[in-house]
Amino acid sequence: MVLGALHPPGAPPPVGFELLSVQPSLDAFARAFELVPLGQQLLNSLTIVAIAVPLTVVCASLTGFAITRLGRPWHGLAVTFTLVCLTIPASALWVPRFAVFRTLGALDTYVPLIAPALVGTSPLLVLLCYWSARGLSRDLIDAARLAGLGPIRVWWQVVLPLTRRTAMAVAALAFVAHWGNFIEPLLYLFDTAKATLPIGLSSLRQLGPTDAPVVLAGAVVATVPPVLAFAVAQRAVLDDTRRAGWVPRR
Amino acid sequence: MSERRQLGLMLAPYVVGALLLFVVPAAYSIALALTDADLLTPSRFVGTANFEELAFDDPIVPGVLWRSALFVVIAVPLRLAVATTLALMLHARARGVHAGRTFAFLPSVIPDAAWAMVWLFLLNPVYGPVNWLLGLLGIAPVSWFSNGTAAFFAIVLMLAFTVGEAFIVALAARQELPRELYAVARLEGARPWFVLRTVTLPLMAPVLTLLAVRDVAVSLQATFTATYLLTDGGPDRATLFLPIYSFDMGFELLRYGYASAMMLLGFLGCLALALAQFGLVRRWRLGVTR
Amino acid sequence: MTVLGASGSGKSTLLRVIAGLEPADAGRVLIDGADQARVEPSRRGVAMVFQSFALFPHLDVRRNIAFGLRARSAPGELIAERVRETAAALGLTELLTRRPGELSGGERQRVALARALAARPRVLLLDEPLSNLDAQLRVSTRNEIRRVQKQTAVTALHVTHDQVEALALGHRVAVMRDGRVEQVGTPDEVWERPANAWVARFIGTPPMNILPSGEAFRAEHASCAVDADGAYTFAFAERVGAERYWHLHLGDTEVVVRAPADEDVPERGTRISVTVVPGRVRRFDP
């Protein structure tokens, strides 16, 4: 992708080994920014991510811990509900969600794009938080309760510091998910000034095949931020996860 | 504030989000499916007409369902195998493992739309590197996006790399297995293949099952961006899967009622899988029972 | 006060109910005569030392000790002073900046005790406080707990499955079985005058001998000798700490008696007679 993007625009990139021997040129990038307001779209995407990622971390972690403190039958119901959500493809709910947001007057705003952060962006992230909160020793939580902390302060002072690994991983995965989100902007945004980067890429796609370097340059622009975010969080996500408690112990 | 109140407050965002994004839309989709809604003019109640059309009159639907099922049957085991193999290869601490994990996860970091652009380039029939590599092996160039079967497998291929989420979960599951078991296996002189079959995979089975059920939803969903940007369901409907077809029906042709009926079908299919999964969850204690 | 019971007898649940961490199915929890049913755990004036110590791994020793006071938003000077006092009393002054991960088992135990005491509880709950320590540390920590309890004069409720620990630490001992209290008494009472046959068998190594006739006595209150007319037969000899015991049979009943001094171990099946110190025989309904 990077190699292709460094070739000059206006001609198809060379075939075979010649692809490797480039005279690096940023013309394709300049051309991509000319054709599509990539700068504005970059800003739009960043805005969404800046709101949605912290919101996801807080909501997923709060929910995960709160579920561990629920009594019967709510505990089981909450976990089951989350597992069921995990198995529903979003496409099954496109139309009714669209109708719901239309009723709420939230079309052509960022509300429908950020709303999933309330449910941890993906049910899987809530489950990760739930499992890792459940992995904390019960005595530890009880010690904090005896000391006089309510559930919210237990979460803030004990659970969140002790599951920082999980929070980092959730942040990274949420960033990737919101950043790459293509379908929802396509459904909910009409004003081109509000479009996000993936939408910009799909307009670049309309260009002919000879402009492959320009298309690839756009793809590079869209890929750099999540790669950076991932680089920051990669130790949290990919290091030895033993004791992070991401999968339930039997 | 009492403990109960605080717990309620902590769960409030999740409950609101769940209502807004799952419960209300799920209920609403049933209502929509019984109308001819286009969301522009007042909708009319049409009873089961949409479902009848789905079942008997729409000549495209059987093909879409069959193709989607075929895709799931091929793509899900493939993606799961890729994720699990990578996780098992990269779970231990060793040189290069960290780089390996990064490479395994990297394709999932790239936005779907950018990933599609990359494959548009890689699979280009004239200058694409894939055909060039095939040429080196003496295979005639494939016109990936004008041959139906080739296009179908191109989609499968490009989605076989984006398994980051499953990879991470499988990795965590593998690292959770007690080391003592592997010490015992070594002392008993068990061969790696035997250990894999009798220890590793059975112990990982609950998590792998969860991932498999989850991937039905994920992989089907992932076909949308790929088909929307690369093939538009073509050539000759060879890549017309359920998500893109229902999208066209609803958002291109404004037949929301009919699209709802179709999506409800997919929804019910997934719910059936979820219930099957609930049985597994019961048995394997993913958290429902303590 | 010590609660002694086998694992699964409900000791820990009892503590958790007293602390308010779990609701009681029946009965009431009174502290200084006041019913605690509607009182939040943190307002009951109880502190707990957990079996796992439950130290916060992300906080250093100072913050662990100060945790309860900070959680209740005590003024800064008071916190500093209490931490200093408590740490000094438990010999932790040097360790205040360390994290739990850098401490030995004994040190962690003392931090857990310090954290529980720093908030000056009315009742101190100790859940198997010694079971995570090795044998030598147990004795010194036992003395430490006794000393601190005397010094602070706090009411301590201690739960254990280890009878040595229970009899050594408790002023009074409650023996629990399947969630019920079988006997409450001083360690001497429980040892000398068990309330029933179950307690008699539960307390003591070796346990109290109970003959089919219902007569019961402890091994150290009886003597035995080789005697051709003896009612007992010899099975085997055993050393437990300073004592040597002979295991004898009376029909199907096994009886353990302190071995006579300077007597060679007899052959298996040798006839033995047993004499119990007068006044040391207890009777239970068979």
Structure commentary:
The complex is a heterotrimer of chains A (250), B (290) and C (286). Chain A has 250 residues and is mostly helical. Helices cover 65% and strands 0% of the residues of chain A. Chain A has helices at 2-5, 27-35, 38-69, 74-86, 94-103, 111-114, 123-134, 138-146, 151-162, 164-180, 183-188, 197-204, 212-238. In chain A, 58% of the residues are buried. The mean pLDDT of chain A is 81. Chain B has 290 residues and is an all-alpha fold. Chain B is built from 12 helices and no strands. Chain B has helices at 3-33, 49-57, 61-89, 97-109, 112-122, 129-136, 148-159, 164-176, 179-187, 192-231, 242-252, 256-284. Chain B is globular. Chain C is an alpha/beta fold and 286 residues long. Chain C has helices at residues 11-19, 61-71, 76-89, 105-118, 135-152, 163-169, 187-192, 197-202; strands at 2-5, 30-31, 34-35, 46-49, 123-127, 155-160, 173-177, 180-185, 209-210, 215-217, 222-226, 232-240, 243-250, 253-258, 271-276, 282-283. In chain C, the strands form 4 sheets. In chain C, strands 4-5-6-1-7-8 form a 6-stranded mixed sheet, sandwiched between helices. Chain C has a 5-stranded antiparallel sheet with strand order 11-15-12-13-14, with no helix packed on it. In chain C, strands 9-10-16 form a 3-stranded antiparallel sheet. The radius of gyration of chain C is 24 Å and the shape is elongated. Chains in contact: A-B, A-C. Chain A binds chain C through residues 137, 139-140, 142-149, 153, 157-158, 161-162, and chain C through 16, 19, 21, 40-43, 46-48, 50-54, 56-58, 67-68, 71-72, 115, 119. Chain B: Pfam families: BPD_transp_1 (PF00528). Chain B: It comes from Solirubrobacter phytolaccae. Chain B: Belongs to the binding-protein-dependent transport system permease family. Chain B: The chain crosses the membrane at residues 12-34, 69-90, 150-173, 194-213, 256-281. Chain B: It is a multi-pass membrane protein.
